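PROTEIN FOLDING TASK:
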Amino acid sequence: MGSITLSEEKFNKLMADVEALIEDAASLFDQEEIAKQRMKDIKENPSIGKSEKELDAYLKKRGVQLNGK
């Protein structure tokens, strides 16, 4: 495989893009934990949450199984 030469500016942009993609992939694999944390936050401070119906729709959209629904 041959080598390529990148300017420092392009290399830094490439690294920033790669970091963003890795963060996106990590959050995809951790959706259930994110949903659980959000539910805990809302239980602790209900004023930050939406209606139960809106929350249920949000969680269902992300594939979270809801008890009895």
